[in-house]
TrEMBL record:
Domain of life: Bacteria
Keywords: ATP-binding, Nucleotide-binding, Transport
Gene Ontology molecular function: any one: ATP hydrolysis activity
Pfam hit, one: ABC_tran
Gene Ontology annotations for the cellular component aspect, listed alphabetically: membrane protein complex; plasma membrane
SMART domains xrefs: AAA
Domain ABC transporter stretches: 11-247
SUPFAM superfamilies in the record: P-loop containing nucleoside triphosphate hydrolases
Signal peptide bounds: none
Protein name: ABC transporter ATP-binding protein
CDD domains hit by this protein: ABC_MJ0796_LolCDE_FtsE
InterPro entries, alphabetized: AAA+_ATPase, ABC_transporter-like_ATP-bd, ABC_transporter-like_CS, ABC_transpr_LolD-like, MacB-like_ATP-bd, P-loop_NTPase
Length: 247
């Protein structure tokens, strides 16, 4: 494997734009955003309300269509794929964790974890399944339904589900937004360990400087553009950048 292959980004956006509505009602959510995401890198995306951060994440994950520009996962341009092709790609190559967990209430924790793999027709790696449930402390809860789990446990189930297929990129939209500080820290520590131990690429939207400090870098959006970047973030440094943007 040559050096170019080793350092090629897992995902990247090129001159990405996204508009809603038309004419006088047109709203530009993204205005020519370009960014790349390296293998084994944890990136947090932050910005004031309405900055376009969640729209950017959804476009990167193929959950939103783009108005112009490209979104590459490896050498595949998501903007050229049909809806069916996108569904297949997301099932096998991308993982997504939502703020609201999005677990099916009639399924057990184990069934929810295995759901994406089954829907994409992929056979789960049982050894990897075991690693995930043990690392996330879920083995005693595998037979429980979501209503029998705490919020933190539900989100850990959602993380395990997203990682079971070993996605090239894990996208997370405010994954600690509905959790208390202790449960949120458990989820963030696992995401950090997935990057460090398994070279997982993680892209996370958050409003919380404490969560952002777990990342390797933070991209800051304002008015649909990337306006700043911080590497090796600390809580205080993220606070300061956000105060400046919101001021």
């Amino acid at each position: 494997m040559n050096q170019t292959t080793l350092t090629a980004p897992v995902a990247r956006a090129e001159a990405l734009t996204k508009t809603y509505g038309s004419g006088e009602n047109e709203v530009a959510a993204l205005r020519g955003v370009s960014a790349s995401f390296a293998p084994g890198q944890f990136t947090a995306i932050m910005g004031p309300s309405g900055s376009g951060k969640s729209t950017f994440l959804y476009c990167l994950a193929g959950l939103e269509t783009v108005t112009s520009g490209s979104v590459m996962i490896g050498d595949v341009d998501l903007t050229t794929l049909s809806r069916t092709q996108l569904t297949v790609l997301r099932g096998g190559r991308l993982g997504f964790v939502f703020q609201a967990f999005n677990l099916l209430p009639v399924l057990t924790a184990e069934e929810n974890i295995r759901l994406t793999a089954r829907m994409s027709g992929r056979k789960a790696d049982e050894a990897w399944f075991g690693v995930l449930v043990d690392a996330l402390g879920l083995r005693p809860r595998l037979g429980h339904r979501p209503s029998q789990l705490s919020g933190g446990q539900q989100q850990r189930v959602a993380v395990a589900r997203a990682l079971l297929t070993r996605p090239e990129v894990l996208f997370a939209d405010e994954p600690t937004g509905n959790l208390d500080s202790r449960s949120g820290a458990e989820v963030l520590r696992f995401l950090r360990s997935a990057v460090d131990a398994y070279r997982q690429t993680v892209v996370m939207v958050t409003h919380d400087p404490v969560a952002a400090a777990y990342a390797d870098r933070v991209l800051f959006l304002a008015d649909g553009r990337i306006v700043d970047e911080l590497t090796g973030p600390t809580i205080d440094a993220v606070h300061a950048r956000m105060r400046r943007l919101e001021g």
